């Protein structure tokens, strides 16, 4: 059962819950996303990952996942962007502003989930363009579920308060321990995400990376905190060494010149 319009407006931390055991790979979510956001199907913000059908007939099972932006609690894309093209709303969505984007693609390198996609068909004149899920702010702000959630025919996708969805996810695991992996992906991964995932197969088979609980941005920022002072210190040292060597060479050249000048009259007398 979906949340009411008032409930959606009042959600403090909006999030998705995806249940891989319910996904039938119909791809209705992909179509609804493209229609809602007026983008071509080949530029879809949703793609299907996983191994598809696995096993041998008649013992077959499906392992597919609807993959889109994870809407991280601590977004690495936002941290990496040098021009502020990314922003995070207090209620969850990670948004992208194409008018600010310069096409550096740092966000693509920073995202551990490989979400941002660059439109290589566009030139610089048309403007740089990264595409990704935005959580349909035009819908959730008026109390509607994101298009993909509203379209899913099997309730593989749910939308609601992150804390409530985590409770629901753990309740399903507890009720059916033989059906699910005993873990909710996204609860702690990369510092936590707003796209939570339940699965009956190892998460790696759904195309999800094995990331720790510390956001990549924290690690990179800590490294930069060490690297920048180190680089500046060594830069200063090397600059001092260069100046010292230059001064030494100048003195050496001056001394040699004096010797040459001193020897010149003696040679002329001879």
What is the structure about, briefly put?
Helix content is 38%, strand content 16%.
For this entry, give a set of tags.
single chain, alpha+beta, Alpha-Beta Plaits, two-stranded antiparallel sheet, 9 strands
Query: Any idea of the CATH topology of the largest domain?
Result: Alpha-Beta Plaits
Q: Helices and strands, in N-to-C order?
A: HEHEEHEEHEEHHEHEH
Mean pLDDT: 82
**Major sheet attributes:** 3 strands, mixed
CATH architecture of the largest domain: 2-Layer Sandwich
Write down the domain tally: 2
CATH classification class of the largest domain: Alpha Beta
Report helical residue fraction: 25-40%
Structural class: alpha+beta
Q: What is the CA-CA span between the terminal residues?
A: 112 Å
Low-confidence stretches: none
State Rg. 29 Å
Count of discrete alpha- or pi-helical segments spanning 4 or more residues: 8
Q: Could you describe the 3D structure shown?
A:
By secondary structure, the chain is an alpha+beta fold. The protein folds into two domains: 5-214, Alpha-Beta Plaits, CATH 3.30.70; 215-270. The protein is 38% helix and 16% strand. The chain is built from eight helices and nine strands. The protein has helices at 5-10, 28-37, 76-80, 106-110, 137-140, 147-151, 162-175, 216-269; strands at residues 14-19, 47-56, 59-67, 86-88, 94-96, 117-118, 130-131, 157-161, 195-198. It has a three-stranded mixed beta sheet with strand order 8-1-9. It has a two-stranded antiparallel ribbon with strand order 2-3. A two-stranded antiparallel ribbon has the order 4-5. Strand 2 and strand 3 form a beta hairpin.
